[in-house]
UniProtKB/TrEMBL annotation:
Alphabetized Gene3D superfamilies for the sequence: Rieske [2Fe-2S] iron-sulphur domain
Name the record gives this protein: (2Fe-2S)-binding protein
Gene Ontology molecular function: 2 iron, 2 sulfur cluster binding; metal ion binding
Keywords for the protein's UniProt record, in alphabetical order: 2Fe-2S, Iron, Iron-sulfur, Metal-binding
Tagged with keyword Iron: yes
Length: 132
């Protein structure tokens, strides 16, 4: 008779957790661009910290199919209180992804689920997979 414990099965959450970075590496107003597969297509995610909280969005502007960082690396506006698409300048509320611009008013970035636990930040969205 074996004394080893029964095999552990990973929960659905454990299986879909995608590590972004250690919590300490994402300070206020910092962001990471993470390659992902979203609904089976290659995409990227923006993961950011604002007001101490972690938020994540699909890196795709609501105006045109462009990454928010398509023209330069920054995603925050100069005041650091909004996200800003580098193509035509639509600004977004970092806590909701909602457009704050007249252009595309009422639209919002696609929010992605995150989890910050045990000093690590993960994407946990069911629609997101590892890029490879
Ligand atoms: S593509 Fe983002 S503002 Fe036009």
């Amino acid at each position: 008779m074996s004394s080893s414990s029964p095999p552990q099965t990973l929960s659905a959450l454990e299986r879909r957790k995608l590590l972004v970075c250690p919590s300490a590496d994402l300070k206020e107003h910092q962001h990471r661009i993470i390659p992902i597969r979203f609904k089976q297509a290659p995409q990227s995610a923006i993961v950011l910290r604002f007001g101490g909280q972690v938020y994540a969005y699909l890196n795709q502007c609501v105006h045109m199919v462009r990454r928010l960082d398509c023209m330069h690396d920054g995603i925050f506006d100069t005041d650091q209180d909004s996200l800003r698409c580098s193509m035509h300048g639509i600004v977004y509320d970092p806590t909701t992804g909602a457009s704050k611009s007249v252009l595309c008013a009422g639209e919002r970035l696609e929010a992605l689920r995150t989890l910050e636990i045990d000093g690590q930040i993960y994407l946990t969205d069911k629609r997101v997979r590892h890029p490879t």
